[in-house]
Amino acid sequence: MLALIDTHHHFYDPAAHYYPWLNDAGVPPHRYGDHSALKRPYLPADYLRDTAGIDLVGSVHVEAEWDPKDPVGELRFIASLREQSGLPSVAVGQAWLHQPDAPSTLEQLAAFDFVRGVRQKPRANAAPGGPPGGMTDAAWLQGYARLEPLGLHYELQTPWWHLHEAARVAAKFPHTPIVINHAGVPSDRSEEGLRAWRTALAGMAAHPHVAIKISGIGEAGYQWRPDANRRVVLEVIELFGVDRCMFGSNYPVDSLCASYQSIFENFASYVAGFSAQERAQLFVENARRIYRIAP
């Protein structure tokens, strides 16, 4: 059995805390469609049940879109879960880089010894074209400049049509690591859509301090499609190389698409022809290095 560090999952409790996407009525639709099944607590006990049979050796909690008025509160909650269960190994916090309070927020997040980076989904267009996105804003760039001195990396989740803006950010800040979430979000699986996605990802892959998580590759309106997702996985690895790719479950969100075991059995089958060392890099070693997870 392959060991695994899961580089992308979420813990949350909408019964005790405020998450707009889980608590509010009339929120924008989820990219997978109806997400009402997710509007319940998802805590370490639930995660351990879902990962039963997986040789889990570490995990990364990624901010779960907690109340944006109190991003530090989420990490206090995660700290309490770590004390109770030992999970997650490390975490990625929420930070709104364009806000005036970003410097204080980043300093408070960096003070948690298990926080490795921050995520904020920058302002983006709903489709290709349109005005520039949030990564071009001067205030956002000022906030981004504060990451490196604090030892934080940036977790990037944005549609592929904004990756050219991210590539300019990567060039401007070559010492701030970037981890792309969800394989660059290849939501359009047409040939034209996949070509455009691959071209955009190639621009990011040209920067050696950019890594990528192969996670969250489900599709709206479908259960997990093994053949369609095989192409995405293998093209990402081809672009970034084995030493800059990692696997993540995006659980419980991707429970809308497949079981945990099914997702990772598929990931394992896609790379079955790789060497044992390459598989170890993809499933454990890259995550251990990039997220600084002790054995």
UniProtKB/TrEMBL annotation:
Q: Which GO terms describe its molecular function?
A: hydrolase activity
Q: Which Pfam families match?
A: Amidohydro_2 (PF04909)
**Which residue spans adopt a coiled-coil conformation according to this UniProt entry?**
none
Give the superkingdom in one word: Bacteria
Name all Amidohydrolase-related domain ranges.
Answer: 5-293
Q: Which InterPro entries match?
A: Amidohydro-rel (IPR006680), Metal_Hydrolase (IPR032466), Metallo-dep_Lactonases (IPR052350)
Indicate the family of this protein.
Belongs to the metallo-dependent hydrolases superfamily.
Q: Can you say what this protein is called?
A: Amidohydrolase family protein
